[in-house]
Amino acid sequence: MNRIDPPPSASDAVARLDTLAGKFQQAKDELARTVIGQDEIVEQVLVTLLAGGHALLVGLPGLAKTRLVKAAGTVLGLDTSRVQFTPDLVPSDILGAEILENTQDGSRQFRFVEGPVFSQLLMADEINRASPRTQSALLEAMQERQVTAAGTPRGLPRPFHVLATQNPIEQDGTYPLPEAQLDRFLMQLDIDFPSQDDERTMLMMTTGAGDHVPALVTSAQDLIEVQGLLRHMPLSEDVLDGILTLVRALRPGNGDETLVWGPGPRAGQALIAAAKARAFLHGRSAPLLADVAALAAPALRHRMALGFAARRQGVTVEGLIADAAAAL
């Protein structure tokens, strides 16, 4: 689990958050200049990282998912590694393995070689192409910030975040992510096509000599500090009640067969952490119900499943979330 630092004084916390807010606003602007036309997705990626979570980026090929993740690592000063998931990938390819080597005195001993999971930002590209056995290797890392490799628990760097990508239409040779793993993602970010003007700008920028190269703006230590301060950000009873109402309204029950399963308590935790992070990015000292409504879809869409009858009637998860969020 993440270590919770002792609470700072209220005045010190506010002053420090104001200083850091400027840095992360610069980081947001830098990412927006690198990935044209995806300002909302850029903000949601930053919200995920500031909240201490992981994100699943879902979009068609060519919508800058990989570019965004690489740029986020550069701008935030995070040690980044990338794994291209394939059906023949095995857990040791991610976690690492022990190798037998000769020492200077002529003896032989095992040495553990760390895998790419030992980084501050892990890009899991096309995560649904790996087998369930390999996907499950990430579960402990995503939840506990440690892995058990060669029979020994090994802590991961701090901070540790997974940004995974997935193609929503190409399903040949893929394995659906299990519900337990989906629930470990703080948010699922669905990336759509940019507007015509944004696409024009992007085409000109990326095919000429002036393609924007992201610059370092903040550091891993800044990110860790914000994550600690946000844990002490106040949460009003109205916002807490709104989150509870929203999450509980999207669970199956009462004879309603619309949903097969819905968001559990971890979804409420995700919404609280994400709402605080969004408030920070917008220069506020406490989250509002507007923050909850803005983040309801990315925080909940991957934690719900429709029943057959509902799908046949044209009901959508997005529609259910929008209706519930509108009632806040």
UniProtKB/TrEMBL annotation:
Keyword annotations: ATP-binding, Nucleotide-binding
- Could you tell me which residue ranges the ATPase AAA-3 domain spans? 54-187
Endpoints of the signal sequence: none
> What's the domain of life for this entry?
Bacteria
- Residue ranges annotated for the ChlI/MoxR AAA lid domain, each copy included: 261-317
What the entry lists under Gene3D superfamilies is as follows: Magnesium chelatase subunit I, C-Terminal domain, P-loop containing nucleotide triphosphate hydrolases
* Recorded GO MF terms: ATP binding; ATP hydrolysis activity
* Protein family per UniProt: Belongs to the MoxR family.
Identification of the protein by name? ATPase, MoxR family
